[in-house]
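so my prof wants the structure for this chain in the tokens format not the other one, which i didnt know existed until like an hour ago. anyway here's the sequence
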Amino acid sequence: MEIYILFVFIIIALLFIDFKANFKILRILAILVIIAFSAFRYNVGYDYQTYEYIFSNNIKLEVGFNFIVNIFHLIGNNVKFVFAFFSISTILFVVNGIRKHSINERMSLFLYIMIPGLFLSSLTTIRQSLAMAILFYGYNYYLKKKPIKFLIFAIIACLFHYSAGLVLVVIVLVHKIKMSSKFIWFILISSLFIGSSGILNKVLADIANGGYMNYFNDNVEANLFKLFVTNIFMMYILYYRNEIVEFRNINVYYIKMIVVGTVILNLFSTIPFVIRFGYYFKIYEIIVIPDFLYMKRKKAITIMFMVFYISTFVYCLFIDINGASSRGGLSNLIPYKTIFGN
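here's what i got, hopefully its the right format
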């Protein structure tokens, strides 16, 4: 666990010095550290060994993934190149997406690392995380009324994970729905009650009875802390929603995305593969929070948010490690190992 704490400390230090001295090369160095931490890992992430097996046996998945695997079968024939490609591509799309969307690149990058469903998940869900990063970058074209460019990036995202196609549909539909504060409060509270009842989980399990049943056999106990944090954050944003939208009108769309992600988490809090789908939308927290902090311009509030997210990161990492141990296994995030030691 110490290596993750050190990693976070280095990133915060580099971004803070960049903030104070406006020394952009330190921001670039922070990005390189993030890429190196992800690209040079070995056997870190729950699906690492699964992808080793897929690579070794040339198992076919999405077209884009198959294409990349085939290239690295020809060049080096080493699965480590595949992990490096996905790590580098994911981080670069996220970083460039931040540059397109955010008014505070440093804070957005910090939040991307701190929110466990984003960077930490990218160490496991390499295909979906890349698809999410591509859509995150491409979404700026949708907001700029350039649907063809957005569609191109959405198609590229689908080549790496088919779930991106469903996200495309949801984005279009959500943009057509007017969300008043009362409506958002209603769906948030309703989703919590419906999710806690377990009705939707049973319905989906019945529908998926067959080839996809294995997804429902992995059901986990709902992380009440994560639900609590997610909904408290959403309520906080809703309280200041009008101010945030007045500060930057485009935030009305980012907040819609976050609402969708929160509702998905509330409804399907025990089904990991559906929760992952929710982070296609919750990623926009890293855009809205910097706007809110800039709007308030109070050092105490910024420090409070940073401490909160650092604590959440450490807590979720701790829960992951202890949760794996209680199930009789080991966390695939710990110990952190690199390709240079294997």
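also thought this was worth mentioning. The first helix runs from residue 2 to 21.
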